[in-house]
């Protein structure tokens, strides 16, 4: 995203949401890498949830993570 990320409305909304909730962060690191969350099932279940940030501060839905985690079936040993 580099510099264009600073001009996106969603990035600023996410920043102010985090700031109002008291998050300060350490501001160390690269700062241009977007993250993601994967929930991967056992054996051949594969990927049950794939969330990749589209812009800085884009959060994954906790209920969707819990729902995907509940779908994980134990692998027979």
UniProtKB/TrEMBL annotation:
Any one Pfam family match given in the protein's UniProt record, by short name: AhpC-TSA_2
Listed GO MF terms: antioxidant activity
Record has Translocase as a keyword: no
Coiled-coil stretches noted in the UniProt entry, renumbered to this chain: none
Protein keywords: Antioxidant, Cytoplasm, Redox-active center
UniProt keyword Cytoplasm present: yes
Any one of the GO CC terms: cytoplasm
Localization terms from the record: Cytoplasm
Domain of life: Eukaryota
Family: Belongs to the peroxiredoxin-like PRXL2 family. PRXL2A subfamily.
Protein name according to UniProt: Peroxiredoxin-like 2A
Organism: Origma solitaria
Source taxonomy: Eukaryota, Metazoa, Chordata, Craniata, Vertebrata
């Amino acid at each position: 995203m580099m510099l264009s990320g600073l001009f996106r409305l969603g990035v600023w909304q996410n920043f102010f949401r985090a700031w109002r909730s008291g998050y300060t962060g350490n501001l160390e690191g690269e700062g241009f890498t977007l993250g993601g969350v994967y929930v991967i099932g056992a054996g051949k279940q594969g990927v049950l949830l794939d969330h990749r940030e589209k812009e800085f501060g884009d959060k994954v839905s906790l209920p969707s993570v819990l729902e995907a985690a509940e779908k994980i079936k134990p692998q027979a040993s």
